[in-house]
Design goal:
The chain has about 290 residues and is α/β, with parallel strands linked by helices. The protein contains 16 helices and five strands. A five-stranded mixed sheet has the order 1-3-2-4-5, sandwiched between helices. The termini are far apart.
């Protein structure tokens, strides 16, 4: 079955409005003379074909179907409408990068009536927030079988693997990704996080450093070094606590290095990370006390 179809305005009600009640339909209004259309249409087709039937692309030549173009107030082309459950959900005009197209398509698929995947993803993310990383990983692995290639699911799996220090497994996943996944903003952040934390204990943490900090608790350089050691071992809570101690003692030390390092890891870990949630509260408390 083809997931890309050419339709006329007479088929719009059946092939777009009615069909979108069970399968989302993205509508591409184009014309043969339109340069940007020649850029956008192949991008749309690539994304839709990857979804393997979860969404349909309907193409309408506006030169031959001016009635429906007028009804939908199409003022320039290319114009793209996304229909879900019989109603337009989203739209854009002009050529767009593949990442933007895919984001819109994923949003439409998630909004499809009866789709249980978004709810299950939320459950997996809640388990992650509750520090139940093994359970969260199992659910994300199940979801990966239901919706392969979903960046949100892939990101969830990777974050779980990092939390339980299965760095080799996370690296193997990255080795298997295609270019599209590797260009995803969230996946890029996780790769940076993995590169920063993929260390062995004996490579990074010197027990003498802990003792030195205990003996000289006001030495910011030593404490900052210890914080980085913990973060490199994925001992996130301990690393954050050391940085918070520095910030509390002297917020401006080394051009706010402690705060900058905290914000860097907040971004890499994501705001759903339980250690980030707790550290943000503590940081705000220190800043506004």
């Amino acid at each position: 079955m083809s997931f890309v179809i050419d339709i006329s305005q007479d088929q719009f009600l059946e092939e777009v409005v009615e069909k979108s009640k069970t399968t989302p339909v993205i509508v591409d209004f184009w014309a043969p003379w339109c340069g940007p259309c020649k850029q956008l249409t192949p991008t749309l087709e690539n994304v839709i074909n990857r979804k393997n039937g979860k969404i349909i692309l309907a193409k309408i030549n506006v030169d031959e179907n001016q009635g429906i173009a007028s009804q939908l107030n199409i003022q320039s082309i290319p114009t793209v409408y996304g229909f879900v459950d019989g109603k337009p959900l989203d739209a854009f005009q002009g050529a767009q990068p593949e990442s933007k197209v895919e984001a819109m398509v994923d949003k439409m698929i998630e909004a499809t009536p009866g789709n249980e995947i978004p709810k299950l993803i939320e459950e997996a993310e809640q388990l992650f927030s509750d520090h139940k990383f093994e359970e969260s990983l199992k659910l994300f692995e199940t979801l990966a079988g239901m919706d392969p290639g979903n960046p949100r699911i892939i990101a969830g799996m990777l974050r779980c693997l990092i939390q339980i220090k299965r760095f080799d497994d996370a690296n193997e996943m990255f080795d298997s990704f295609d270019e599209r996944i590797l260009e995803n903003d969230e996946i890029i952040k996780i790769k940076k996080l993995l590169d920063a934390t993929n260390k062995k204990d004996n490579e990074i943490l010197d027990e003498r450093l802990i003792q030195e900090v205990n003996n000289d608790p006001k030495n910011m350089d030593l404490r900052y070094k210890l914080a980085n050691s913990y973060l490199s071992l994925s001992e996130t809570e301990k690393g954050f606590n050391e940085l918070l101690k520095i910030f509390e003692q002297n917020p401006n030390w080394n051009e706010e290095a402690a705060k900058k390092k905290l914000l860097e890891f907040f971004d890499l870990l994501g705001f759903n990370d339980p250690n980030v949630v707790e550290a943000r509260k503590k940081l705000s408390s220190i800043m506004f006390k």
